[in-house]
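Interim report to the steering committee. The following record documents the input for DUF3153 domain-containing protein (247 residues).
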Amino acid sequence: MSSMKFQALLVSALCAFLVSGCVSYRLGVAFDWWGGGSVEQLLTIDSTLLQAGGTQAEQLIAGLRRRTAELGGTSERSGDQLRLTIPFTSGDDLEQKLNRFLGQPLQTKSPSVALPAPTTSALKQTPTAPATGPLRLVARDYWLWSDYQISADLDLRSPFGAVRTVNLVPGLLQIEFVLSTPLPALRSNSQQQQGQTLIWQIQPGEVNHLEASFVVPNLALIGLLVLVAALVLFTLLRRRQLTWQRK
């Protein structure tokens, strides 16, 4: 069910543009050293396609910006690029927000476009309800560090079967998923790894399975232990100095 929702989001957001030219979508998740971070989405649409989409294209973009704002994020429009940024404070917060964003697709109705989105009151009524979606994240705490296991199954077979009347030539639609972590990942099935950044090239018309594991150190606890050790060492040295002075 979650894969179908993800498909519907991609179809409703991109089908209006798939005539000629190029559309690229980059979904990035960046973890910081404190276990939080941000989700950054970059949608680039060829200017010719953007003009061809007309009012429908602008409505879809407005819907994406509104949904981002409802999740506490910001959006920035510059020419043919739309950048959406959603902050998260923990792994659970990331899973909830990203699955809520991807799990409630923008639905296209003929002849106009409807952009349903969860209202603020609806979110308040179900604060503990899990947001189902393609992303799964499991975090295990080991006192000095946390081990993260992240995975996603993106089934992009069906939606592109619905737009076969469009000339979907190679390179027309480019989709990337990017994961950045404080330390290099321990394991992943990504196609590329650049330092602490993993990059997956998502293939339209196929089932894409993503997985990775990485570690985030508990800097607050590590810093506290270092401070306590420094105080103990200072106390011992001070006592030894006083003892020598008395002699």
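DSSP finds six helices and eleven strands in the chain. The committee is asked to note this result when reviewing the revised timeline.
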